[in-house]
């Protein structure tokens, strides 16, 4: 997973204007807490099972960047945010992502990179 280290401003969901409009994934965690570790592992496994690289998700540690909580209106961690720039749809899945069927449904239709 790519880790965001810029503490100054919210992460752009489509940082390169030349990129195609595809759904983006951001995993919000709190350091190396047990639920955050499980969420990382469960997300990587789900992405691999769907044929995606685990780098498909950007990881933001809210202990290092607490302002991102407000920027993305999050109320709990871990949280997996998925957005589609084309439709503007945003969805959030809260928890350690241990419910395989919910996670796979959430990741359904994620385009390959």
Q: How is this structure best described in words?
A:
- It is a single chain.
- This protein is 26% helix and 20% strand.
- It has 113 residues and is an alpha/beta fold.
- The protein has a 5-stranded mixed beta sheet, covered by helices on one side.
- The chain is built from 3 helices and 5 strands; from the N terminus they run ββαβαββα.
- The protein starts with a strand and ends in a 6-residue tail after the last helix.
- The chain has one domain (22-107): Glutaredoxin, CATH 3.40.30.10.
- Helix 1 (34-49) packs across helix 3.
**In the CATH hierarchy, what is the class?**
Alpha Beta
Count of domains: 1
Q: What oligomeric assembly is this protein in?
A: single chain
Number of helices: 3
Q: Helix/strand-derived class?
A: alpha/beta
Strand order of the largest sheet: 1-3-2-4-5
Please describe the biggest sheet, giving its number of strands, its sense, and whether it closes into a barrel: 5 strands, mixed
Q: What is the N-to-C order of secondary-structure elements (H for helix, E for strand)?
A: EEHEHEEH
Task: List segments where confidence is low: pLDDT < 50 over at least 5 consecutive residues.
Answer: 4-22
Strand content: 15-25%
Evaluate the radius of gyration: 13 Å
N- to C-terminal separation?
A: 14 Å
**Overall shape:** globular
- How many strands in all? 5
Q: Supply the CATH superfamily name.
A: Glutaredoxin
Mean pLDDT: 82
CATH topology: Glutaredoxin
Helix content: 25-40%
Identify the CATH architecture: 3-Layer(aba) Sandwich
